[in-house]
Amino acid sequence: MTAALTQSRALSRRSFLVAVGATGAIVTFGPAEAFAAAGATAQPFAANAWISIAHDGTVTIMSPAAEMGQGVMTSLPLIIADEMDADWHKVKVVQSPSDGKTFGNPAQQGFLMTHGSQSVTGYWDKLRPIGAQTRKVLCWNAAQMMNVPVSELTTEPGFVVHKGTKKRLSYGEIARHAKLPDPMPEAGKDDLKKPADYRYLGKNFQRVDIPHKVNGSAAYGLDVNLPGMLYASVLHPPVQGEIAEKIDDSAAKAVKGVKAVVPLPIPLGPLGAAGGVAVVGETYEATKKAKALLQVTWSNKAAGRTYDTETVGQEYAKTAADWSQKGVDMVAFGLSHGDAAAANAGAARVIKADFVSEHVAHTCMEPLNATVRVDGDKVEVWAGQQSPSIVQFICAAVGKTSPANVAVHSTFIGGGFGRRDDGPEVAEALLLAKGMPGTPIKVIWSREDDITNDTFRPLVAQHFEIGLDQNNDIVGWRHRIVGASYAARALAEIFEKMGGQDIVTAGLGAELNYKLPAHTIDYVRAEGGVSVGAWRSIAAGYAKFAQEQLIDEIAAIKNVDPVEFRLKLLQEQPRAKHVIETVAKMAGWGKKRPNGRALGFAYSDCLRGHHALAAECSVDRASGRIHVHEIWAATNPGFVIDPKNTEQQMESAIIMGLGAGLVEHVDIKKGVVQQQNFDTYRLMRMSDVPPMHIAVISTEDHPTGVGEAGTPPVAPAIANAVAVLTGKRLRHLPMTPTRVQEVLKA
Q1: CA-CA 20 to 30 A from 723: which of 205, 250, 510, 714?
Q2: 27: pLDDT strictly greater than 60
Q3: Distance of alpha carbon 259 from its chain centroid, rounded?
Q4: How far apart are CA 624 and CA 728, in angstroms?
Q5: Distance between CA atoms of 253 and 279, rounded to whole angstroms?
């Protein structure tokens, strides 16, 4: 390709064609096109469903997870490449097909899903044997070609080497004559590399997606352009759950390029949407213009009509503090709530505290979109989705076909954070495509659609009752969470089978890692007609805000240093202690801060890892504004695939933690979302973000999650710093200037 052509391609991303059709080719992201898609005539050697090796030595590796900026399209193929001793410079990465049976994540019940920071931790034990087995297949073939025992062979990146003669065969040479052994060699634990032998894992690597995102060739869902494709915009009801009772579409149909106006009365509640009125046309601009001209009379019966965030938090807080309101045990370490209550009843004193956290929107840079084509009972979907397996089930249910008949072609994702788990835009595109068989329909949500119809992080109230003995040691810890259920909406059958437990709203990350004699979490479901969803770090985001403040409060009551108090409670957790001690040293804990500043500390065991953070803050008492001057953090997520990428993920998560802690919130009045776009939904600006210092600690433990790890400790560390400066506790998220002023005046 000439330099001129290269420049042209880089400047015309919007014309980038995602060509996935009857040929069965799959969308390719990474350093180059896949071997088969590059027009090569010689057939590559397919070592298995994950790996193929071309005659020129190019190794093509499937990447099963959704790439949404977290670097998973690099980290997962690196695991395979290291174990098979591939030459990384000759590796091409391809997005896997939507075949959960082959490419599913064991940590996600074998489904293709990318959420909960479970990609590396889930695929770790699956991908290493695949790479090791491929290495054994190559050695077996090389032994036949060299006429030597396979036991005398070893590998170097891209080569099989005979120990005695030093004769070498490249993987490309082997691929020209290779065949699969019968039976296939097994790759057991003893065949896997030891950490000391890793060539790539544990080192910093250039992510394979970055060059494409820099030169503009990266294909997102918004870039999909298929022959004969039509566009659609959907006017959603102002209040979730309402339907269109009367539609005047005369002005909309008069817009040039508009093909049809289609009511979507089918409730899509489980998907976090409620139908609406769709405009189908030749261009997105035409559909958007026509959508604005629709005159719709909506029903007035939805439960959300009475939902008002100003009062809902207060109502939830009353429920949380009322133990006569029945809840569901989420965490009970060998104890029931009755036992914890009894422990508190015998306590010398009981600390009671209430917290409220407001709705937060996902605000992904790429609004929701999906392209769907229906041919008989066959459905094809092009979209940036975190859960292709869920998309298959959605399309099977809405399209009245089987999941096996649904092909999902995954693109890059312009931000996920849990937003792209549900797929309402996919269902809308499918309903429209069913009415126009053979025609691809591309649904695009505007920024306003995306914010006002988001599945927000739940508005939650929390109530704590903590019993202390005469030495002010904890004897009982009762924690109650009240809020709407994600699981009841999206996973109704599982929710029922689990007896009303919801691991998203009140589970993962809400449990405490501290050693306590009686620790329970109780969940009370409270629905108001507003759909809620998973948001980066799920329950840990607001649970740690409360828990880590209370740890500081108890340390103050005991008159002990809060960092030392945490270390004592975690004395049997060496990895937890290590991150705490690391951050304390990095931040200069115990040293005098500049005038008007204080250091706050927090620890989190969010999603199976260990993370600590310190924030140096000041408070402008006149305005109530909190200024975060500097942040120090450490993470120990077990074995680290790519330290630099882990550091970047921590930075990203910390920035979201700053936003949710200080400025982000969604106001809903009588069911109507008040924020529409970035002019009214406040996000962190570059000027708001302080210097950050991140320590990445790698061990030989099984890898755990990183993508959400940095978010939970941010808000409590800030709140703890404010308490040092003012003597006041902030119990409400976000900690806006107005709320800070109210607390200071109280």
Answers
A1: 510
A2: no
A3: 37
A4: 12
A5: 9
* CB 708, CB 722: distance < 8 Å: no
Q: Is 15 helix (H, G, I), strand (E, B) or coil?
A: helix
- Helix, strand, coil percent values for the chain (each to nearest 5): 35, 20, 40
Length of the chain: 746
- Residues 642-666 as b/e (b if ≥16 CB within 10 A, e otherwise) read bbebbbbbbebbbbbbbbbbbbbbb
d(C-alpha 293, C-alpha 270), whole Å: 29
Rounded mean pLDDT of the chain?
A: 91
Q: Which tens digits make up the pLDDT trace of 381-411?
A: 999 999 999 999 999 998 999 999 999 999 9
Reported confidence tier of residue 518, pLDDT bands at 50, 70, 90? confident
**Residue 297, H or E segment:** strand 295-298
Gap between the Cα atoms of 746 and 724, Å rounded: 17
CA angle 660, 507, 315 (to 5 degrees): 65
Calpha distance 513→649 (Å, rounded): 23
In the chain, the percentage of residues whose pLDDT exceeds 70 is 92
Mean pLDDT check: name the lowest of 40-49, 202-211, 386-395: 40-49
The span from the CA of 78 to the CA of 37, in Å, is 22
Closest to 26 (Cα-Cα) out of 34, 17, 15, 16: 34
> What are the chain's domains?
3-215 (3.30.365.10), 221-302+368-444 (3.30.365.10), 323-359+457-745 (3.30.365.10)
580 CB-near residues (< 8 Å, 6+ apart): 563, 566, 567, 570, 603, 612
- Please give the structure tokens belonging to residue 93: 């990465």
Residue 721 near residue 661, CB atoms below 8 Å: no
Identify the CA nearest to 499 among candidates 641, 374, 330, 383: 330
Strands 168-170 and 159-162: antiparallel
| SS3 of residue 121 by DSSP | helix
- Using the predicted structure, report yes or no on whether residue 233 has a pLDDT greater than 90: yes
DSSP state of 690: P
Distances (CA, A) of 466 to 325, 345, 350, 377: 19, 10, 5, 57
pTM: predicted TM-score of the whole model, two decimal places: 0.93
- β-strand pairing of 59-63 with 91-95: parallel
Tell me the β-bridge partners of 524: 482
CA–CA gap between residue 693 and residue 705 (Å, rounded): 20
Task: Please give the Cα distance from 584 to 614 (Å, whole number).
Answer: 8
